[in-house]
Every structure is written in C-alpha cells, then in structure tokens.
Design goal:
The chain has 325 residues and is an alpha/beta fold. Helix content is 43%, strand content 16%. Helix 9 links the parallel strand 7 and strand 8. The relative contact order is 0.15. Pyridoxal-5'-phosphate binds at residues 40-41, 70, 149, 151, 179-186, 267, 295-297.
C-alpha cells in the first residue's frame, strides 16, 4: 500500500538552462504531490510508528516538535486520518497555537501542550507514556510516544519503501539527492535501495558532521550495514537550520519562476541550492543524472509569513501593509 503510494509520486524533469549547459540532468521526485493528508517524507516515517501504536493497542499517539514543525503537522493530519487521537508537546509559548501549522493541527483534533525549552529538552528524551505521565500528569499515561521528527528505527523502516520504489524505477546511474535533518529518511532510503543507486544527503543543519555516524549506527541496527553507497554534504547548511540568506531567497524565486515547482527554504530549497552550487563548481561530471527528492514541508512556508507579521506587529506596523504567506 505504502509502496504503491510511493510509486504514485510523479517524477518531473527540471530544465534549468545553466544545469543543462553543464550536462546535468535533474529530475524531481514529487513526494510533495502525494494524494494524502500530509504529503512528503513524513508519512513514510510515521507509517510503521502508527502501525506499532495500533499493534500495541493504543488509540492515542504523542510526539514533540517546534511551533512550525512539519512532523507535528503531519502527525496531527495523518493520525486523524487513521483514527488516532493525537497529542503534541510543543516547544514554545501557547500563543503559537494560532500559527498556521498549529491551527491545522488543532483543527485535525490534536491536543497541544506547550513547554519551555529546558522542559522540552528533558521531555523529548522520554519514550513511554508512563514517564510522560510522571513528568506532566496522568492524562499522558495512555499515549504511545513517537520521538521528535519520527526519528527512530520504525521511521527508518517506513522510509525503506522510498528506496525500494526508486530501485525499481530509477536509471541505474542516477544519483539520488535529498535534504537531511536527523538522517532518518536517508537511512531508510539507502536501506531500501540496497546499493542500487548512490545517495547524497544535504544536511540542512549546521554542525551535522556526526550525522554520518548516526546513519551508520542506524543501518547496522536494521541489518543494512552492507548498504554503503551514500554520503552527506555538510557544507551547504547556509548558516543553520531554517536560515534563509538573500542568495537562497533569490535562487528559490528564480527556480520557482522557471519551473513552476513550489519549494521552501528549509529543506527542498536548501537541497536544490546545494545542487546548484555544486553544479556551478563543476562537481558533477557531464552526463550526470540526478534525482532530487521533494520531501514536502510546504505547509511550513506559511510560518515565514506569519513570523514576519508577528515581528512587524511587535514593531508597531499595521496589518494592512503586509503581504503574508
Ligand atoms: C520536509 C522535510 N524534508 C526533509 C526532512 C528531513 O528528514 P530527516 O529528519 O529524516 O533527515 C524533514 C524532517 O525534518 C522535513 O520535514
């Protein structure tokens, strides 16, 4: 079922003049276009986790995230679509409940619980409802806990489907590229490809040098240590998570104008800009075929407009002068 879903994501060739001139052929695998409540990679990370919850007899699932988290958004929508009630432990102030991400989550029935940064650090390490109950109150005891970002072995196993689907369809020479935060999606993709294609992850966080070791440990734990055709580019984080430089903003505007494919600056935009910079540097030989995963996250775009509005409101500007979203 998940495999058929992965196969239903369109593969779209992108023709940017500079890339063609340097002999690089790029296709985008449009996971953002999947016909599900929350498209992108998140569904794959959540699938085995939600199955695990059901198999263990839970009807209530809980996870952790920031105020604009794609993971929280996807859990709220996917969980509701699969008949679960959901709880989000959110790092931040309660007024964030009005932002577009969390408004959607609440509309899908998610119960939100806001905590400060240091409580969040402690709570997000907990893996059992009993422990959360002891820390926060009895109402959390009956929850099945999914870690922040869906980053666990079940998340990896769900993402194997992505690799298996690509192994059957991608040209044998194609290099697969994707944005990485925890490396969970990359680990699953690599395991599912089973060495059929090489994979390049683009780390979207600064200081991600340890991600490769984490991925190796994960591959060992799911018996996929023999899958070795992958690497992680840690040089194109662009200053850190969710940072958008003027150059990145300009690149995204040009890309969207030329291709009509919507992207966002945190994941897909940063990955494509990394590819662009590498093409400019002649990192890829002529004739290279790339398949870039569009992992979704477009819902998060609304957060950029929202934050701008909040900041300008604080600075005393009126709503009417702003364009949001
Ligand atoms: C849209 C999007 N793409 C990519 C990623 C990176 O996934 P991972 O944490 O599995 O590396 C995430 C998750 O954080 C995401 O929300």
């Amino acid at each position: 079922m998940l495999y058929q879903l992965a196969q239903s994501a369109p593969m779209q060739r992108v023709q940017l003049l500079e890339w063609e001139q340097r002999g690089v052929d790029l296709q985008i695998w449009r996971l953002d276009q999947l016909d599900v409540a929350a498209p992108g990679n998140k569904l794959f990370k959540l699938d085995a986790n939600l199955r695990g919850a059901r198999a263990a007899g839970y009807s209530r699932v809980l996870s952790f995230g920031g105020a604009f988290s794609n993971h929280i958004h996807a859990l709220a929508l996917t969980g509701a679509a699969q008949g679960f009630s959901t709880v989000g432990i959110i790092r931040g102030e309660a007024d964030a409940a009005n932002n577009p991400t969390l408004s959607d989550a609440v509309a899908a029935g998610m119960q939100l619980h806001f905590v400060d940064r240091s409580s969040y650090r402690m709570l997000s390490k907990l893996r059992h409802g009993d422990d959360l109950g002891a820390a926060l109150g009895a109402q959390f005891v009956d929850c099945y806990v999914i870690p922040e970002g869906g980053a666990n072995d079940l998340g990896v196993i769900g993402c194997k489907v992505l690799g298996a689907a690509l192994a059957n369809t991608a040209h044998a020479d194609a290099q697969i590229v994707l944005p990485c935060a925890t490396g969970t999606t990359l680990a699953g993709l690599v395991a599912g490809l089973n060495n059929a294609n090489t994979v390049l992850g683009v780390a979207v966080l600064k200081g991600a040098e340890s991600m490769a070791a984490t991925v190796r440990t994960t591959l060992n734990s799911i018996d996929a240590h023999h899958c070795t055709r992958w690497s992680i580019d840690t040089a194109h984080h662009g200053g850190g998570y969710a940072r958008m430089s003027a150059d990145l903003e300009q690149f995204i505007a040009n890309f969207q104008q030329q291709t009509r494919i919507p992207i966002e600056p945190v994941y897909s935009g940063k990955m494509l800009y990394a590819i662009h910079r590498r093409i400019e540097r002649d990192d890829f030989e002529r004739g290279t075929r790339l398949i870039a995963l569009h992992t979704g996250g477009l819902q998060g775009m609304r957060g950029f407009g929202y934050r701008k509005t909040q900041q300008m409101n604080k600075a005393g500007f009126s709503h009417s002068v702003l364009r949001v979203g």
